[in-house]
Amino acid sequence: MKRSEINAALKEMEEMVKEYRFAVPPFCSFTPQEWEEKGHDYDEIRDNMLGWDITDYGLGNFEKTGFSLITIRNGNLKMNGKYTKTYAEKLLYIKDGQYSPMHFHWSKMEDIINRGGGNVLIRVYNSTPEEDLDKVNDVHVHIDGRELVVPAGTQVRLTPGESITIYPYMYHDFEVEKGTGAVLLGEVSQCNDDNTDNRFYEEMGRFPKIEEDEAPYRLLCTEYPAAK
């Protein structure tokens, strides 16, 4: 991704967050220059990859396949002696026409919540033992305390305020229902590890390669400088 694309995506998500009056932590507003001065008292943000996360999954077409996220809080399974939180929270933004590819998590259970905007469609499959799509067996889903059994490949529609529980080994993708507008999503989950806990159905990356065509507006969660 070009840095200019990342900067534009950050600013667009900031506007959506303001529109829906979702206040985010102060570190989401730190400039790159401010990060250069932050000491070890901010190591939890660095170590647990809190903050901004813009991705095109390494496919080079953010407007078609991409997502904008903020990790608000997170634990760390590899450093659980230091960071004892067993949970995570994210804010996600997806535009009409964007797509987040089919994947599951080996470890993480999560609730995806439509916080506002349009409707989000989440297609669900079970995984086979070989980690392929199970296109035969029905999928048990839980939506706001209601248990449903749906055919494999069903797109579950979440209108604002609705949520779905995504279990480990449950394949899922995201897209906006056409014509309903961009969606602000919440994610409440067990500890999140985007380096090791994403099984994409088709091979792809999780974080973008960045072409520096302008100065960064905010740093991504993978870019923080070491503490002085």
Give a structural overview.
Pfam families: Lyx_isomer. This is D-lyxose ketol-isomerase. GO terms for molecular function: D-lyxose ketol-isomerase activity; metal ion binding. It is an enzyme of class 5 (isomerase). By secondary structure, this protein is mainly beta. It has a single domain (1-198), classed as Jelly Rolls (Sandwich). It has helices at residues 3-19, 32-35, 43-47; strands spanning 51-55, 67-73, 87-94, 99-104, 110-117, 120-127, 133-134, 139-143, 146-150, 154-158, 163-166, 170-176, 183-190, 199-200. A hairpin with a 5-residue loop joins β6 and β7. The two termini are 29 Å apart. The model has no long low-confidence stretch (mean pLDDT 96).
In short:
InterPro entries: D-lyxose_isomer, EcSI_cupin, RmlC-like_jellyroll, RmlC_Cupin_sf. By secondary structure, this protein is mainly beta.
- The H-and-E topology, N to C, reads as HHHEEEEEEEEEEEEEE
Strand tally: 14
Q: Given the C-alpha coordinates, what overall shape results?
A: globular
β-strand percent reads 35-45%
What percent of the residues sit in helical stretches (DSSP H or I)? 10-25%
From the N-terminal CA to the C-terminal CA, the straight-line distance is: 29 Å
Number of helices: 3
| CATH-assigned homologous superfamily | Jelly Rolls
Features:
single chain, 228 residues, mainly beta, Jelly Rolls, six-stranded antiparallel β-sheet, 3 helices, 14 strands, 11% helix, 35% strand
